[in-house]
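Write out the 3D structure for:
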Amino acid sequence: MNDITIWIIIAVFYAPLHFMLPVLFLFIVGDETETVRRKLVRGVIIDAAASMLIAFAIAITLANFDLLALSIIILVLFMATPFIRIIRYRRVL
């Protein structure tokens, strides 16, 4: 599991879900104006990129210690972090 090719394959399948789910959620559920939605989407994409980098750093570190189940759990849990901005914004309104 230390092979870089395997981690690239995991990232290729993980990234679309990690980026697209919160953006789709914004477009389906949101009723904001276009300018507010654009700013919110930009912020969510930045949050998704940062959380994906952090998640993979933690997951690769855990995988090096042979804690594969925990590294997968970390990757799944970090899928929810881009939604934090959406929830915080919607509660303010």
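The CA atoms of residues 7 and 13 lie 10 Å apart.
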